[in-house]
Design brief:
- It is a single chain.
- By secondary structure, this protein is mainly alpha-helical.
- It folds into two domains: about 5-75, EF-hand (Recoverin, domain 1); about 80-154, Recoverin, domain 1 (Orthogonal Bundle).
- It is built from eight helices and two strands; from the N terminus they run H-H-H-H-H-E-H-H-E-H.
- It has helices spanning about 5-15, 25-35, 45-55, 65-75, 80-90, 100-110, 115-125, 135-154; strands at about 95, 130-135.
- The longest helix is centred in the C-terminal third of the chain and has 20 residues, at about 135-154.
- The relative contact order is 0.12.
- This is EF-hand domain-containing protein.
- GO terms for molecular function: calcium ion binding.
Length: about 150
């Protein structure tokens, strides 16, 4: 399995760094734990996580600490963003066009998570072109996550 490259780490980190200050604080760590585990986290869960990951004990997770977490404990993308993109990029040209998207939905809809389908639909809604590149997809994924966190906390 391929290792993360520096850009993968930055993209993943930015998904959780909602306030874009270069650190994951208490609320961002809570979101990270809940997204990875799929369950609500308690303050005790968060404290144990911080004790384990926050090696310099400054009560935040730096990108370096995050990189250790991801590369050591998640050998492939925990969010599956690249794999999700590749699922829809059926011809492998680095773009997903609306025809590819619709064909994958038609062929594999029963095997795909409805949230992932709806997310990808939103990518096309935000972009007026008929094709979406991986970079556009990542930008949209990052914005979607930040909007989700902002709306969830309000």
């Amino acid at each position: 399995m391929a290792a993360y490259d520096a850009d993968d780490i930055k993209v993943l980190f930015s998904l959780f760094d909602a306030d874009q200050n270069g650190k994951l604080g208490k609320n961002e760590v809570k979101e990270l734990i809940e997204l990875v585990t799929g369950e609500r986290s308690t303050e005790d869960d968060q404290a144990k996580f911080m004790q384990f990951i926050d090696t310099n004990k400054d009560d935040v997770i730096s990108i370096d600490e995050f990189e250790v977490l991801v590369t050591k404990y998640f050998p492939m993308a925990p969010l599956g963003v690249r794999n999700l993109f590749k699922t829809f990029d059926s011809n492998g040209d680095g773009f997903v066009d609306k025809d590819e998207f619709n064909q994958v939905i038609k062929d594999k809809a029963d095997n795909l998570d409805e949230r992932k389908i709806n997310f990808f639909k939103k990518v096309f809604t935000r972009d007026d072109s008929d094709k979406v590149s991986y970079e556009q997809f990542i930008d949209s994924a990052t914005k979607h996550y930040r909007d989700y966190v902002a709306n969830r906390n309000n």
